Each structure stands twice: as structure tokens, then as C-alpha cells.
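Hey L., structure's done. Input below.
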Amino acid sequence: MRILKENAVGLVIDIQERLFPHIDQYEQLEKNVQILINGLKALEVPVLVTEQYKKGLGETIDSIAQLVDGDWHAEKLAFSCCDEPKFAEELEISKKRHVIIAGIESHICVLQTAIDLKERGFQPVVIEDCVGSRSDANKRNAMERLRQEGVIVSCYESILFELCRYAGSEAFKTISKLVK
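Output:
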């Protein structure tokens, strides 16, 4: 099954100020998520953003917040984005069936969201180099569980070129520069 940009939406889960510095390899994760978001924007794929309990975890980190300023945002208390009624409604309104997921933490909010999306008839695509946990072991465990659940796991370069499909376009040129 090919992931098509016309049927895709990006989802950035809970990349927030107070938790992010505690994520394993967070500096690389930040760069990867920036590349993914910029690539999605070049392809005109809409992006949804969630923030878990902002009072405790703070706002989306600045470098990501700047890229998604003006995109749809929701605060949530549930671990799964699907348990947030505003998110579920926005996703249904979008009519998009492929949900390209980046964020933290892999073994909690990302995992639960992906499983719930699959159960609800969506095709979640977790971008392994754009998700993280406080420990590498927790991330590895989440990736194994996601695969067991039948969730597609990919990387940012692969998904961006899959969505692009052809060389020569402005989106292709932008993505090529992003991944160098």
C-alpha cells in the first residue's frame, strides 16, 4: 500500500519544553522532526499538533512551534490523541486516512495513538527516527509492539520521497535539500 500525500496528514505528538530535554538523543530527534515537518509543508500535507497537559509539560519547543505556527493544535490529558474529542473530530473532518506520526513518548502517547488510529480504520505511519522516549529500551519496545499491531514504521526520508513520488518538482528539490 502506497502512502499518498492527498490522503495524508502529519501528527506531531507532545514535543514539549519540560519533557523534551529528557528524551534519549533529543538533539537528533529535534533535527529529524524539523526535516519531516518542512518536507510535509513542501508537499502541502496538513499537520496536526498535540500538547499533553501544558500546565505541567509546557509548550511545544520553540524550533518545532515555529514550523507549525498556524497549524491545528489541541491540548490533551489522555495519552492517546484519539481519546481527545477535538482531535478525533478534526481528523474525521480532514477525510485523511494516513496519519504520519512524530513525537514523544514512543512507548506511551505515540504507541497508544497509533493503536487507536488503526482500530478506528486509519493507517498510522510511525516515523521511527522522529519519535523518542526517555530510554532507548522503551523506544525499541514501542517499535516492536507497533509492528506486532500491524502499524507501518518508516523513516522521514523514505516517507517524504514516497509522498513526493516524482523527481523534478519544487517539492522534490526542497526535500532533497532537507535530507542532505
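The first helix runs from residue 26 to 42. The radius of gyration is 15 Å.

-- N.
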